[in-house]
Amino acid sequence: MTIYRQHEIEEFLQLYFIMGSTNCKKDPVYVLKQAIEGGITLFQFREKGVGSLEGLKKKKLAEKLHRVCKDAGIPFIINDDVELAVELDADGIHIGQEDLAANLVREKAADMILGVSTHTIGEAEKAIEDGADYLGLGPIYPTISKDDAREVSGLTIIENFRKNGITIPIVGIGGITSANARDVIQAGANGISLISAIAAADDVKKASEDLKRAVI
Ligand SMILES: Cc1ncc(COP(=O)(O)OP(=O)(O)O)c(N)n1
Ligand SMILES: Cc1nc(C(=O)O)sc1CCOP(=O)(O)O
Ligand SMILES: [Mg+2]
């Protein structure tokens, strides 16, 4: 695991790609390599939902994707599964309000990048107190990639967090495409995080390039 400083984490959040095997039309390793060629800056392994891999198969895929990230110098974040993140010595872990509490995750993963999904200022303040490095806010727009997504928040959640003095790095998530990515940044986010706009694209590299152009 590489230990990153806050300004580096902020830069990594710019184009944050999230995926698991069920999100991909092609081999996940190929998809990740193409996305990296296209300019993604951070990757989250999120093996979740109907048909997703479990146990050893999940671990094997995580190891392969971790290798790809290491070779490219892209930090590798694991969603939800703190044990796997520790076992693989991942660069970070992302958790939500229904997952293991952030303070406990921080204890188990002292030096990892810690991302926390929050929906209210209170949740954000608690996450920051617990040691979060960044917040995920969403769904900003309607999403097809998360069955239990909350009500769409729109850009106002990002604007409200900033108005209320939340200065920690923020990524927007949910329904983000190259057509609306710029608006998310202009609302006050440091970056965008997304699944389908890259994982389900016919040309993953081009989709990533288009998104990169929209955020820089
Ligand atoms: C960057 C980022 N933001 C938000 C989420 C969602 O996390 P969570 O609410 O825990 O939902 P699941 O992804 O676990 O279904 C995320 N994964 N990444
Ligand atoms: C994983 C996830 N979390 C969300 C949240 O609102 O916290 S929305 C979401 C899915 C994002 O996928 P897509 O880019 O395909 O919409
Ligand atoms: Mg979660």
UniProtKB/TrEMBL annotation:
Domain Thiamine phosphate synthase/TenI: 15-198
Cofactor field: Mg(2+)
Presence of keyword Metal-binding: yes
Binding of 2-[(2R,5Z)-2-carboxy-4-methylthiazol-5(2H)-ylidene]ethyl phosphate, residues: T143, I144, S145, G175, I195, S196
Alphabetically ordered keywords of this record: Magnesium, Metal-binding, Thiamine biosynthesis, Transferase
Residues annotated to bind Mg(2+): D80, D99
Pfam family, one: TMP-TENI
Pathway: Cofactor biosynthesis; thiamine diphosphate biosynthesis; thiamine phosphate from 4-amino-2-methyl-5-diphosphomethylpyrimidine and 4-methyl-5-(2-phosphoethyl)-thiazole: step 1/1
Cofactor info, note text: Binds 1 Mg(2+) ion per subunit.
Record-level Gene Ontology MF annotations: thiamine-phosphate diphosphorylase activity
SUPFAM superfamilies: Thiamin phosphate synthase
EC number(s) stated in the UniProt entry for this protein: 2.5.1.3
Residue numbers binding 4-amino-2-methyl-5-(diphosphooxymethyl)pyrimidine: Q44, F45, R46, E47, K48, N79, S117, K146
Catalytic activity: 2-[(2R,5Z)-2-carboxy-4-methylthiazol-5(2H)-ylidene]ethyl phosphate + 4-amino-2-methyl-5-(diphosphooxymethyl)pyrimidine + 2 H(+) = thiamine phosphate + CO2 + diphosphate; 4-methyl-5-(2-phosphooxyethyl)-thiazole + 4-amino-2-methyl-5-(diphosphooxymethyl)pyrimidine + H(+) = thiamine phosphate + diphosphate; 2-(2-carboxy-4-methylthiazol-5-yl)ethyl phosphate + 4-amino-2-methyl-5-(diphosphooxymethyl)pyrimidine + 2 H(+) = thiamine phosphate + CO2 + diphosphate
Known role: Condenses 4-methyl-5-(beta-hydroxyethyl)thiazole monophosphate (THZ-P) and 2-methyl-4-amino-5-hydroxymethyl pyrimidine pyrophosphate (HMP-PP) to form thiamine monophosphate (TMP).
UniProt family annotation: Belongs to the thiamine-phosphate synthase family.
Record-given protein name: Thiamine-phosphate synthase
